[in-house]
Amino acid sequence: MMISVAEALAKVLAGVKPLNAERISITEAFGRVLAEDVPSRITQPFADVSAMDGYAVRSDDVQTIPAAVTQIGESAAGSGFAGSIGPGEAVRIFTGAPVPEGADAIVIQEDTEADGNRITVTEAPVKGRYIRPAGLDFREGDALLTKGRRLTTRDVGLAAAMNVPWVSVIRQPQIALLSTGDELVLPGEPLGPDQIISSNSVGLSAFIRAIGGTPINLGIARDDPASLRAMLEGVRGADMLVTIGGASVGDYDLVKSVLGKEGLDITFSQVAMRPGKPLIFGTIHDRPMLGLPGNPVSAFVCSTLYLRPMVDVMLGAETPETAGAVTETALLGKDLTENDRRQDYLRATLSRNADGDFVATPFDKQDSSMLAVFAKADCLVVRPPHAPPVEAGARVPIIRLDPRV
Ligand code: AMP
Ligand code: MG
To answer: CATH top-level class for 49-132?
Structure first.
């Protein structure tokens, strides 16, 4: 039975759950998903500190300008002034240095003239100005980074500022990747007659890495039951199995029949979408199994729509990058005819018109084997089943293809 994209997405997401956590160094944590809240171990700044180079003063002393004060010491970043400031006194201070006791304002260097330790203030300071109060940024115990957050480079910097050297993150799912097909060889190998390159083995490995998983390449199974069964051994220990090809109804499409005998429990095997109709989802040896169609564009589109959100669930990501569910809109760049009963994902470029609006223009050729067009595409134009004809300029849903993925 052919199910809708929405049903398929709901079923695959229900079939995965968050993995356990591991501890890693904060220097390795970019892109990882936090398994628990991270409280700050320090208060930042640790004390009232100067935001400028100049002199720490008592503001009441220097309201009538020019005013003369006496420099009694220095406070530098990393070594503060030990004493306190009395009437008519000032301390030379630098950015990041603690404000000495008794001072309540900073006169910036540009507003002073120095003659030995005699400092003339030429501009009256405002009380509190140029002083960063203790805890301005954050305080000890503040949980600034929370469970489920995918750490950006800024977050990594923040965690470091919080004096956090390691974090607990969700383990990266290990995804066993098994290609199938008598015609396939790996890039660089000599090509026999009628053979093609198994581009998916390589491209989807990179995709898995990019979305936060660890690919385990099981290799290429031949289109015979014994070969497929033997290579399936590799799934043990992995969190999930992804097969490529052999998912359709041809004589050599063995994934359903062979894996079925090996314990694959199939949830669905056809989705009303184009590309990607022969998509299988099920469970094998207590693990989720996604059977991707072999055509490269179908395999990538299905990975974008289903595999990526599945990995997000396994990672416990708070803001899943579910390209399948989150759609934006753009203006259509050319007329389109009526759609049939399968939801269409048209490969398209994305540009801006004179008004600054995004315009999505589908390529003329949309064959699911065409990797060159797909690599050039910026987005997919989504056409629901039975969508009526639309003219250029109409607003249509799109899914952006992640330019870094
Ligand atoms: P299948 O689903 O096995 O019938 O494959 C559909 C099409 O995708 C066929 O033209 C296959 O040659 C091609 N194909 C299958 N697997 C791969 C792969 N790993 N890399 C590139 N093309 C593939
Ligand atoms: Mg095949």
So the answer is: mainly beta
